[in-house]
Write a structure and sequence with these properties.
This protein is mainly α and 107 residues long. It is built from four helices and no strands.
Length: 107
């Protein structure tokens, strides 16, 4: 006998024999307990589809939304620009005067 025939013969033998009452009762109790346990658990079957739908919605919003565009900086007026340049020139002149003073004191 090969293995498949042996398994088939064992199945027929088991199916033909009646199940003892105590084993049948324990099997029914175990089945009922398993069914009750499955019914008591909260179902999260909706979690995966809901997460996928939310991800698709977020991606769609990000793709469809128009970019903010370039940030336009305000142009400085000529007066503001010349005032900034004058201040820089004054600071340079003060620095040069200080340098000449230091050279005169050192020499």
């Amino acid at each position: 006998m090969n293995e498949d025939k042996l398994i088939e013969a064992a199945k027929k033998s088991v199916e033909q024999q009646p199940v003892p009452d105590d084993i049948g009762r324990r099997l029914r109790l175990a089945r009922a307990a398993a069914v009750d346990e499955m019914q008591d658990r909260p179902s999260f079957g909706w979690a995966l589809p809901a997460t996928a739908a939310a991800a698709v919605a977020v991606i769609a919003i990000l793709v469809v939304r128009e970019p903010a565009g370039e940030v336009v900086l305000p142009d400085l007026s000529d007066d503001e620009m010349s005032a900034a340049m004058e201040l820089e020139l004054l600071e340079d002149m003060e620095f040069l005067a200080w340098m000449l003073e230091q050279d005169a004191d050192a020499g």
